[in-house]
Amino acid sequence: MADLLTVAFITSLLLGAVAAGVPLLLAGIGEQMSEKAGVLNIGIEGMMLFGAYTGFCAAFYLDSFWYGFLFGGLGGMAVASLMAVFCVWLNMNQIVIGIALTIGAEGLTALLHHFQFSRSYPRLSAADTLAIPGLSEIPVIGPVLFNQHAVVYLSIMFMLFLIWAYKRTYIGLNLQAAGDKPAALDVAGIDVRVTRTGAVLVTGFLTGVGGAYLANIGAGLFFPFMTGGAGFIGLVLAMLARGKPHWVLYGAILFGMSLSLTTALQVAGFNIPTDVVQMLPFAMVILVLIVLGRNSRLPAALGLPYVRGER
Amino acid sequence: MIRERENHTPLAEARDNIVGEGAMAAARIMLPILLALIVGGLILIALGKNPIEYYWYVIRRGLLSPTGFQATIVRMAPLLFIAAGLIVSFRAGIWNLGTDGQFLLAAAIVAALSPVLSPIMPIWLVFVVCFSVAAAVGAGWALIPAFLKANYGINEIITTLMMTFLGISFANVLIKIPFNDPSTTVPQTATLAVEDRLPRLFDTPVHIGVVLAVVAVIGVHVMMTRTSLGLKLQIVGANPRAAIHAGLKVPLLTYAAFCISGALAGLGGAVEILGVWGTMRADWNPAYGLLVVPLVFLARFHGIGSIAIVLFFAILMIGGESASRRLGVPQSYTLVLVALLLIFMALVEFLDHRWRRMKTS
Fold it and tell me: Given CB atoms, is A235 within the 8 Å cutoff of chain B?
């Protein structure tokens, strides 16, 4: 066990955890916002994948990681806008449309990638990192955790901002009302649909940025179906976090670490199938659910379209 | 009174409605398909391909050529079993999005079990045992979400999705470690001899599993529409609170819906292994589960409708597979078509609703 805890092992574990965890964090806090507002956003996997594609293309052609994140976010938002039109304004079934958007994004990105790059997978150069003075000099963990791309810090700051915003601002309360008692929000003179649309679009942006991070920084390239369920894990995280943004962070770290554990173990000389480790976080969550049997508290009007005057 | 003045008996009115309903139902299914094909065609044009050529090629390879059509029919078997499972759960108001895990895990266990059993027992008994085990595995994998839903009311979309990830990884672990056949280079299970696989019909690749799958879908349809269990499940689906007040055992029915649904998905896995592959490789995951969801929706949870739509989809799939080799349009185009189909279906339904409301008010 002692020789497991080498610097190389810990470094690769933490690096992998950040690389896998940031997209999960962004998807998780995004999904959380949609759910708060009453939209169960199953299309999140599609938003992430489409964001990964547009983000990669922007970073590749414009040769800038910041454009990559911007266009990744916009790509996610484009898919989210379809979700908003169909589910918030036309009151269609959120699960059907969510699955359609995921399948559609999978197909469309694979199709476009094929016609653009054929079978080649061009790589991006490594991104610039931003070392935080002082903290990045902590031995072992410092260079890993505090020497990341700036977008990592921005994501965490945005998460902290959400904690404050949900409790202390009208916007936060409006979101909560849109999910729990939309009729009350309507009576208070605030448009439920506009509130929900905003939430869904922000979800799309955050998730798209997460996808761009996954492609541009995590992998350095785009390949079809690359998200492989990461968006759905974000959905799970949001559901388990019970409306608290910092819980999403803990979940993202946990899932990120177990996703990177295999690589880290291989670095340390242990060869076990990836699948064993990939099962861990899910098995753990299921176990917690069975043992504690807690109802994941969800907004009362989650998944229900709002129609004025209907009960 | 008004009716008499207009010279309309209730019966005639009902008959007019049924005729109208039938035409409307056909339009509600055909219109989205047509729109999806048109918009999909525009995407092909944008990518510099000729849509007419593509569609004609798909029809020729998936439907008109004998070998292609046989492949289409064979492909229908797992899809239909999954569809049957989804019909039960969706009609009972349960979103079982975990059919992929149930399907793969059952497939892995059947793939490992069948070559062991085939030398020691008669072939029909191998099938009976394998099908029973597959159904039990599928149902068992659905038990945890069922427990969490029935006892704690935890949303099954999340739990079934988690169980599906868990199941896919678990199936891979099983194949890579305990079930691995050491004589092969890629991790896979031992292979079931070709003569021990499911019997074929009329010397074609079409195996008896297809017939079983059709029977399963029809059986499920009859169960849901003609039996008391089906009615109870539908009540739970339509209004759980009303079901409690009607004295139905809602937790028990929830378990039933989950388990039947999981068992059918598991049977799909068994049929695919026993009928087509005879072995299972690690990391094999056709991901049929999420693809069948939209098809069942399009058929509005109707058994016969599902068979027709699964046939249509299998043609697209098989034709698309050969088009990806010959015409250079990747297979993923089929996914785009399915997504378009779903969106247009939802749109047509929405317009239909609005139109009806305008007519009644």
Answer: yes
